[in-house]
Design goal:
single chain, mainly alpha, 1% strand
């Protein structure tokens, strides 16, 4: 069997076996806001969320400080209850919610949009989209000549994506990882020719990405830079670029058309196209917390998720990583070197090695790496500009889960650059550091879920002690409770 096929089968089997770990419950105001869109549209055919908010409040599910005042007392400019969430998750969850509706009608469960089949539909939907984000990331890495199956599993287990796929799936983050991964995959496919059809697809993917989480719109800046770079090369010696202009217009039209549902929701809720006016008051565009959001011992992204730092080193090494031909391509597309250092290219099965240089703009991985780093920098900028940059009370720096695809590409590039011999000390050290980074994420996930840590902040020394001493001692009992008495973890949760 072809090695890639075996890898895909293994990946799918791992995901299928992991599905019993999905926790179908809603407990956070953020989750309620995203869920309310879907429930209100499905059952009430409107965007009035008061009954949804009241349902969760009356049952003690949403009793956090300020919940009643924010969502059941205040109103928007159009007189409706506030919803800071966006519509994209509801769109993605709809097929799974529909399956839940069918299950409810055939099993005797309450057909009210709130019962277990509906919540389970949303939860499993998020898990599926998180997995599709991993799949798309592998395909994106393949476009760059990287084998990312093992790196994808490493990022899956070593970042908060795992938590938001299985422990708290009704948040938007697994869907966000999917939306961004889809956008990056489309970008890497269309940048070969920047055809009009490709730009239409890219515009639609950008709209979906933005409808899932508004801050994800900034990923489009990296692709826009790449396009501008390519058009500048075309314009050298040319008077005009009609084809490029037509493609840009088509892409903008595609974005606007695909974004129409969210624009309509904004108008109905807020009276204007854009989030609630109070959101702007939470932003300081000077990004005063940009360094803290990365390095703070209590809330920093790299402290919560050290694997992310490893992955970003890999993105820096991307231009030197090995290259496989694009899917469906062949080595005749490459030009022989014209000076400079030759670069070894991995051959197709049964082929021979060739030494070539990457000649077209599509294969200029230096440019791709620059655009990926710009995408990361913009997410750091946005994360450091938000008043609530700590995301205290949530697991990890969850706003960075959108970077999943870039992290997978980075780990794949770093893996590609390691010495081939397993006896090399660099490779051994890299493997050990990666394993520790993955275990750190798994341990923190367990500590957070069972209330073994302060959910408002990290305490690295205490967390490390519990990770390497307390959890191993309690491991068997925790595994049993998670498999057979999962509700016991949440009885006293805030």
């Amino acid at each position: 069997m072809h090695i890639a096929r075996r890898q895909w089968i293994l990946l799918i089997v791992l995901f299928a076996l992991s599905l019993p770990a999905v926790t179908a419950r809603i407990y956070s105001s953020d989750e309620i806001q995203y869920f309310a869109y879907l429930r209100s549209l499905w059952f009430d055919r409107d965007l009035s969320f008061e009954n949804e908010y009241q349902y969760f409040y009356d049952r003690g599910i949403a009793r956090s400080d300020g919940y009643h005042e924010t969502f059941l007392e205040r109103t928007t400019e159009t007189g409706r209850r506030i919803n800071f969430a966006t519509l994209g998750c509801a769109i993605l969850w709809a097929p799974f919610y529909g399956a839940g509706d069918l299950v409810a009608r055939t099993t005797g469960a309450s057909v009210d949009g709130y019962s277990k089949p509906y919540v389970a539909g949303v939860a499993y939907g998020s898990a599926v989209y998180g997995f599709l984000a991993i799949v798309l990331s592998i395909l994106s890495a393949r476009r760059l000549g990287l084998n990312a199956f093992l790196p994808a599993i490493v990022v899956w287990l070593g970042t908060p994506l795992l938590f938001y796929m299985y422990v708290a799936p009704p948040f938007s983050h697994a869907c966000s990882a999917f939306g961004v991964a889809l956008f990056i995959y489309v970008w890497l496919r269309v940048r070969d020719t920047w055809s009009t059809r490709g730009l239409i697809a890219l515009g639609a993917a950008a709209a979906l990405m933005t409808m899932i989480r508004e801050q994800d719109a900034f990923f489009a800046v990296g692709a826009a830079l790449d396009f501008a770079w390519a058009r500048l090369l075309v314009l050298r010696g040319a008077r005009s670029d009609v084809r490029g202009a037509v493609g840009v217009v088509a892409g903008i039209v595609a974005f606007a058309a695909a974004f129409t549902p969210q624009a309509a929701a904004y108008l109905i809720l807020n009276g204007h196209v854009g989030p609630h006016s109070s959101v702007g008051h939470k932003m300081n565009w000077a990004a005063p917390h940009a360094l803290q959001v990365l390095f703070s011992p209590e809330h920093g992204f790299f402290v919560w998720t050290p694997l992310a730092l490893i992955a970003l080193v890999g993105v820096l090494l991307l231009p030197q990583a090995g290259f496989l031909p694009p899917e469906g391509g062949n080595y005749n597309e490459f030009l022989p070197p014209k000076g400079g250092r030759n670069r070894r290219i991995l051959p197709p099965e049964g082929g021979s090695y060739k030494f070539v240089r990457v000649a077209s703009a599509f294969r200029r991985k230096e440019q791709v790496a620059l655009c990926l780093l710009l995408m990361v920098a913009l997410q750091i900028y946005i994360g450091g500009s938000v008043e609530s940059w700590t995301v205290a009370g949530a697991f990890g720096q969850r706003r960075f889960i959108a970077l999943t695809s870039i992290l997978i590409i980075g780990v794949a590039a770093l893996t590609d650059r390691l010495p081939a011999s397993p006896r090399q000390s660099v490779k051994i050290v890299a493997a050990a550091v990666t394993v520790l980074a993955v275990y750190w994420n798994l341990a923190l996930s367990a500590e957070f879920a069972i209330g073994l840590m302060d959910r408002q902040k990290l305490e690295p020394r205490k967390n490390a002690y519990d990770a390497f001493v307390t959890l191993p001692l309690q491991g068997p009992s925790l595994a049993y409770r998670y498999l057979f008495d999962r509700a016991s973890f949440y009885k006293h949760a805030p």
